[in-house]
Specification:
Length: about 150
């Protein structure tokens, strides 16, 4: 006769409930200034000197390119001139206070969650009861995990 088969069986069970109330948050990105100018068959002036493109000025972190005028080199000839400018967001002089958002070009702000009726219970029999969504900005997750290991 042959010996009977032998194996160890291990069983694990776990149950959990996770309740989250999300905090308020603000994310902001400040953009910087940009200025470009290009042309051909033209003369430029910054209003003071011919053939000059002004270096501009920076005040409170914002670049001001100044006024640039262009004059065609040869009347009736082909020419091109273009300039573009993006103004920067102002550099803050102090930290933003809680609940306010800076005056930046790119801001995402979310309000705090409200627990409201947020609830969940795990019973001694691994049951999940009373899993209830709360107010805005909340989440409720119930989980039951079973693991069975059969080994020698």
């Amino acid at each position: 006769m042959t010996a009977p088969a032998h194996a160890d069986i291990i069983s694990r069970m776990s149950t959990s409930v996770k309740l989250d109330v999300h905090a308020a948050g603000t994310q902001a990105s400040r953009i910087g200034s940009s200025f470009s100018i290009s042309g051909s068959n033209i003369d430029t002036t910054d209003g003071n000197t011919a053939g000059v493109v002004s270096a501009g000025t920076i005040t409170s972190g914002i670049y001001n390119p100044g006024t640039i005028s262009a004059t065609q080199d040869t009347a009736g000839s082909a020419f091109s001139f273009s300039q573009s400018y993006t103004q920067a967001d102002t550099v803050p002089t102090s930290a933003v206070t809680v609940g306010s958002a800076p005056n930046f070009s790119n801001v995402t702000s979310t309000s705090a969650g409200t627990a409201g009726t947020l609830a969940g219970t795990v019973t001694s029999a691994h049951g999940i009861t009373g899993l209830t969504a709360g107010g805005a900005g909340t989440s409720a997750t119930g989980q039951f995990v079973t693991e069975v290991v059969i080994g020698h």
